[in-house]
Amino acid sequence: MTIAPRLHLDLVAVLSSSGVEDAGREATAIIEAASRQPGEGFEAKARRMATQRAAGTPLAYLIGQTSFMGVEVFIAEGALIPRPETELLGRTSLEILDRASTPPRVIDMCCGSGNLACALAKLRPTIHVWASDLTDGAVAVARRNVEHLDLGSRVVVAQGDLFAPLTGLGLEDTIDMVVCNPPYISTGKLSKERADLLSHEPREAFDGGPYGVSIFQRVIRDAVALLRPGGHLLFEIGAGQDRQVSLLFNRAGAYEEVVARADANNTPRVVIGRKK
Predict the structure, then answer these.
(1) DSSP 204
(2) Which residue, among 116, 109, 229, 233, has the nearest Cα to 174 in the 3D structure?
(3) Do 212 and 185 touch, CB atoms closer than 8 A?
(4) Together in a domain, 50 and 143
(5) Angle, helix 242-252 to helix 214-223, in steps of 10 degrees
(6) What is the residue range of 229's domain?
(7) Which of 6, 58, 147, 258 has its CA 20 to 30 A from that of 76?
(8) Are residues 211 and 104 in the same domain?
């Protein structure tokens, strides 16, 4: 397309002037996305998208997709944009599941766009996943990703409050792993120093209650009935929450071998507990 080189330079200038890092890569992504989308003229569409990006709209929402653990997934407003740090939760989950002697059965709680559920099932063709989220936006995107990746026979997306929509499916004492990337930022922080997170993404994906651990407490308690003996519960956690979440595991009395897994910066970002 002959217009692309000039257009690319123009978009880089717009993005760079607003402080967008790696403006060249993002300009390329915007041009590619604009060429795939129907509607207004290609150049006008790309320029509009660049202006929105310069104003702060996340790139993933503009182009409608992102990569998670090497798997391309759709993303849309109403669902949390997958973060690179969540890949540690995914990799840790696979390390444990690869030791299973039977086809693993997994619950992805607070599944968001379904990125974790879909990546686990896509990368390991024996895994079956039941995913759950509360909001319409997240569930719609997750179901779209399941369909797009042709995972409908192994990934079920349910809607409701935590484990409630999975009641009656006969999953009790059969689940090898529950994975959860819960809201873990305190309500107070979201109203002050982390308020920027709410500019485009849903509050439900971040608000972990007064102390940031409300969902951890509920999942730790309710997962016990679904996990088989020896099954694992894994959480992504916020920086500095490892001791607090480990204490919640230990207080529950149903878990053992509670450990934290650190990221490349040696910051604990995953906590694992094993059902006794």
Answers:
(1) G
(2) 229
(3) yes
(4) no
(5) 30
(6) 77-275
(7) 6
(8) yes
Q: How many residues does the chain have?
A: 276
Shortest CA distance to 118 belongs to which of 77, 162, 69? 69
Q: Which amino acid belongs to residue 203? A: R
Helix (H) and strand (E) counts for the chain?
Answer: 10, 9
One domain for residues 208 and 149: yes
pTM of the predicted model as reported, rounded to 2 decimal places: 0.89
Closest C-alpha among 99, 104, 163 to residue 132: 163
Q: What is the pLDDT of residue 62?
A: 92
In a domain, 9, yes or no: yes
Tell how strand 128-133 and strand 105-109 pair up. parallel
**Mean pLDDT by groups of 10 residues along the chain of 276 residues:** 74 90 90 81 89 90 94 92 93 96 95 97 97 95 97 97 95 97 71 56 62 86 97 94 95 96 95 98
| Domain at 188, CATH number | 3.40.50.150
Q: Contact 197/56 with Cβ under 8 angstroms?
A: no
